[in-house]
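Probable nicotinate-nucleotide pyrophosphorylase [carboxylating]
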Amino acid sequence: MAYTPEGAQKAFPPSLPQLLIDDAVRAALLEDLGRAGDITTNATLPEDAVATAVLSSRETGTICGMGFARTAFALIEPSLKFTALVKDGARVKTGDGIARIEGNARAILSAERVALNFLMHLSGIASYTAKFADLIAHTNAKVCDTRKTIPGLRAFAKYAVKCGGGSNHRFGLDDAILIKDNHIAVAGGVAKAILAARAYAGHLVKIEVEVDGIKQFEEALSVHADVILLDNMGPELLEKAVKINAGRAKLEASGGIAFDTIKAIAETGVDYISTSKITMAAPTLDIGLDIEIA
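Structure:
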């Protein structure tokens, strides 16, 4: 059985569009099956052999990617019966069952690796995010991701972050303005960059600016930035910025985020803490598939 520790977030994110899942899983299956299919399974198992398999977690973590696993088995053989034992976002312990698959044995084994690859990778991101989120659950701060994701898999990685109790930053260059140090250098200053961005953007587009000190921070406040990213500032400077801000802009801390630093950063009163580690440094969650022997 899955468990949810006290204080853990219980709201599950919405499902990903099935079309996105279908395209990704189909491409992965084609990559794995190649031109001749699963020659090992086809050579060793009778065509009509049936089996029951169980997906289970081999360590404690947070599950993400159930839709990908279900789709992998369904695309190989629609008649396979896939029974989910947990939902995305569920916390599991070592040995907990995740899903049961029943039907044609060849189909089960041919889809196994693709199903596990998605599950292990996305559950790894969700699990790593949950560790950060749990450390700051006593504050109002949210841990959020960045655009540092494996190309082509961003939507899935960000979904996994949500499953782990994190928050999503912008999805790409087109859905929010984030003025970084290089933009500021070319534009001629923080205020000039923000004012130019506001003149360019529609009224629904948020404007965030990165600052590296209190002087730049106050300049950003003076021209009413929506969000201010406080880059590589220690807790003392963050506390000072929070006090000066007085709730005017949303504040995001970034840089030097780790398990042993995030608690102190969150306790300064910032709204968001962004880190690329939850999508780029997360280890996979160990999940296995075993055939049940009668």
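The radius of gyration is 23 Å.
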